[in-house]
Amino acid sequence: MKIDSVVVDFDGTACSHDAAEHLLREFANGDWRAIDEAWERGRLGSQEAISKQSAMLEADGATMLDHVMRHCPMDPTFAPFVRWARGAGIDVTLASDGFGFYIEPLLAAADVPPIRVITNEQRWNEHGRPDALAFVNGHRECLGCGTCKMQAVLDRRPRGAVAFVGEGSSDRYAALYADVTFAKLDLVAHCERDGVPFVPWRDFDDVRRWIESEAAVPGAVDPRRCPGWTVV
């Protein structure tokens, strides 16, 4: 089975660093780590968690963007991967449940060809500081995740087989619905727990080589309802 689409996480995946965490460490006024812990334990959905964390940021957008541009480089193998994928007729989409505003500038600085970006929308107040997050790519019914990575994968299915590339806990639901998942770091444990077959990876050269090898695609676990499903 040929891979027709690749959905890629951003923070810690396409970007070598977790840009959202960098911003929280530098500019947050409050215990953002406790919010992360509550989210990891399932006590908070990511919409609520990231909204609380965004409200802790005490700097204007320009200052925070400058910090990210200086400290959070893109994975150097990502831009070549995107160019290769375009030449091979493979669609590449970024799906991020972070603050979102830094993604396009980082892509441009790394000379990444234009790709679809699915993320949250940071709103700003009259002083240029964070006001609220708009979850413009959340699920129409579920209120768990800010950006529904499950839906990002499902939306690519009409093109054919979908690969997902990630590394963190926010990627676990996308992994359940991808035809093949490339996992490292925290996502590995989630895949093992959820029975998701995965391919270990270090950089996007590994992803490209696996796709080029035309190895057997394991297929999606595809539960009828996402385990993170949350409604009021």
Mind summarizing the main beta sheet?
6 strands, parallel
- Overall geometric form: globular
Low-confidence stretches: none
Widest β-sheet, arrangement of strands: 3-2-1-6-7-8
* Helix and strand sequence: EHHHHHEHEEEHEHEHEH
CATH architecture: 3-Layer(aba) Sandwich
Summarize the structure.
The chain is 39% helix and 16% strand. By secondary structure, the chain is of the alpha/beta class.
Could you explain the architecture of this structure?
The chain has helices at residues 19-27, 32-40, 46-56, 61-71, 78-87, 103-109, 149-156, 172-177, 186-194, 204-213, and strands at 3-8, 91-95, 116-118, 121-124, 130-134, 161-166, 180-183, 198-200. β6 (161-166), α8 and β7 form a beta-alpha-beta unit. It contains 10 helices and 8 strands. The strands form 2 sheets. A 6-stranded parallel beta sheet has the order 3-2-1-6-7-8. The mean pLDDT is 96. α5 packs parallel to α10 (204-213). The radius of gyration is 17 Å and the shape is globular. It is an alpha/beta fold. The protein has one domain: HAD superfamily/HAD-like (Rossmann fold, 3-Layer(aba) Sandwich). Helix content is 39%, strand content 16%.
